[in-house]
UniProtKB/TrEMBL annotation, chain B:
One record GO biological process: sodium ion transport
Membrane-spanning ranges: 41-61, 73-95, 101-118, 139-166, 178-198
UniProt entry keywords in alphabetical sequence: Cell inner membrane, Cell membrane, Ion transport, Membrane, NAD, Nitrogen fixation, Sodium, Sodium transport, Translocase, Transmembrane, Transmembrane helix, Transport, Ubiquinone
InterPro entries per UniProt: NqrD, NqrDE/RnfAE
Protein name, as recorded: Na+-transporting NADH:ubiquinone oxidoreductase subunit D
Length: 266, 221
């Protein structure tokens, strides 16, 4: 009875009146399927190029961060000055021996290289923390660390916030902050990306003489050397930034590493 | 050769006489948002024209087989897919400009201009003519965007396509940039002014009043 030759079936379908239910359903399915193929194809093919673009943008922001800190470009340009990339073991607070920058992404695919955070520890809203982090050290001609760039991340109000914190040689003075990625409300929380807000981070201090982390984004105007101005209308983004900073500078973040650098172990 | 002449007028009519933005006031949301500089206006114009031409061609190809009951959603799905593809291409090859255009490329999907042309023209005409019509409309839209973008960039930043034309005060010149030009309201003023000029020069573009003024009640019969 039914002729299953695909060409005949196709012709029959096309000959159906446009109002017929079968044709409506088949057309709807075909159009969505073809469009889905096109969209997925474009996304998959172009993803590597887009990822490279984003990486280049992050690199540019990192360089912008260094260039924006007074004296750093000269140091980098001067003889002997170099920016080195180091993978550090956050638990041991020393340079990782098995993991290199090239193998870091592979290592982080392994769940064994992540540490789960309990609710009390997880103030940055991360869920778990990688055991290895890629940090950058800028060394002067004498080989001493004069600037450390530490990537930090955490949950913002809308989405994740990724940034790089630059610390001076004393590991207590902030040299600058560069926001690499955020999806906060444009015009409110999104202003954490603005140079005007980021510029006031320079010269702020992290911890007081007793070593307790005091840094915070103020509610309103900054009133001490440990605070930067809050952003009006973006209370939750501001407090998220405070929590991210407190986490990464604390004992579960870079705290041990910072102590080790201050002891001169790097 | 009447066919060629009409094909030519299909292409050129939407540039001024049937301009989709100034006559039909279609697609002005993006026209206001992305015209702070000529570069973004040009990219947006190219993206919209590409989407418009391709969707017109595709929809015209299958025009005899689009069921009436789902025709709008079929058109929107095709347009939306093309927009996503174009957006992905921009993010891959024109990353910086795509960052500036942000959501406005995705919003081409809801640009009335695109659906307006596919619904009113492509559904009733063969692919060649539809694509010529789409190209004409795309170019008409681009023309308006580039004009407004040029004025805004020239007076708002003293430059054109990033090249400094007027030396601004900051750079030691004489020109004080009009910051208003870089804000959204200026695009409203400029577009309004452009429509006004066009309708003064070409009085047949003026719309007939849809509502009568209340002081002539005898005309209501």
């Amino acid at each position: 009875m039914a002729d299953m030759n695909p060409i005949t079936v196709w012709r029959k379908l096309l000959a159906l009146p446009n109002e017929s239910r079968t044709k409506t359903l088949v057309m709807a399915f075909l159009v969505s399927a073809i469009c889905a193929l096109g969209v997925s194809g474009a996304t998959v093919i172009l993803r590597p190029i887009q990822a490279a673009n984003r990486a280049a943008e992050q690199q540019a922001r990192l360089e912008g961060l260094i260039a924006g800190i007074p004296g750093m470009s000269e140091l980098l340009a001067a003889e002997g000055g170099s920016l080195s990339t180091v993978v550090v073991d956050l638990t041991e607070a020393k340079a990782a021996t098995e993991v290199t920058p090239a193998t870091l992404s592979v290592a982080l695919e392994d769940n064994a290289n992540w540490t789960g955070l309990s609710e009390g520890q997880d103030i940055a809203g991360l869920g778990q923390r990688p055991d290895y982090a890629q940090v950058y050290f800028l060394r002067g001609a004498d080989g001493e660390i004069s600037l450390a760039l530490l990537p930090i991340s955490g949950a913002g109000y809308v989405g994740p916030i990724d940034a790089i914190l630059a610390l001076r040689a004393d590991m207590n003075t902030i040299a600058g902050l560069a926001v690499l990625g955020q999806s906060e409300t444009p015009g409110l929380g999104g202003r954490i990306e603005e140079p005007a807000w980021l510029s006031q981070w320079r010269g702020k201090e992290i911890a007081d003489a007793s070593g307790a982390v005091r840094f915070a984004v103020a509610k309103g105007r900054a009133s001490s050397e440990f605070e930067v101005d809050g952003i009006t209308g973006a209370t939750r983004t501001s407090s998220a930034v405070t929590r991210i900073m407190r986490f990464w500078l604390g004992p579960d973040g870079y705290g041990p590493l910072i102590d080790a650098i201050q002891r001169g172990e790097f | 050769m009447p066919a060629r002449a009409s094909l030519w007028s299909t292409l050129t009519d939407p540039l001024v006489h049937q301009n989709p933005v100034t006559l039909q006031i279609l697609g002005i949301c993006s026209a206001l948002a992305v015209t702070t500089s000529v570069a973004t206006a040009l990219t947006m114009s190219a993206a919209l024209t590409a989407v418009l031409v391709m969707s017109a061609g595709l929809i015209s190809l299958i025009r005899h087989h689009i069921p009436g009951s789902i025709r709008l959603i079929v058109q929107i799905v095709i347009v939306a897919s093309l927009v996503i593809v174009i957006d992905q291409i921009l993010q891959a090859y024109l990353f910086e400009i795509s960052q500036k255009l942000s959501v406005f490329v995705s919003l081409i999907t809801t640009n009335c201009l695109v659906l307006g042309r596919t619904e009113s023209f492509s559904r009733h005409n063969p692919p060649g003519r539809s694509m010529v019509d789409a190209l004409g409309n795309g170019l008409g839209y681009s023309l308006v965007l580039v004009v407004i973008g040029s004025v805004r960039e020239l007076f708002g930043a003293g430059s054109l396509l990033g090249l400094q034309v007027f030396q601004t005060v900051d750079q030691g010149g004489w020109f004080t940039p009009l910051s208003l030009m870089l804000l959204a309201p200026s695009a409203f003023f400029l577009l309004g002014g452009l429509v006004w000029i066009l309708r003064t020069l070409l009085p047949d573009q003026t719309e007939t009043l849809e509502l009568l003024s209340p002081d002539k009640p005898e005309d209501l019969s």
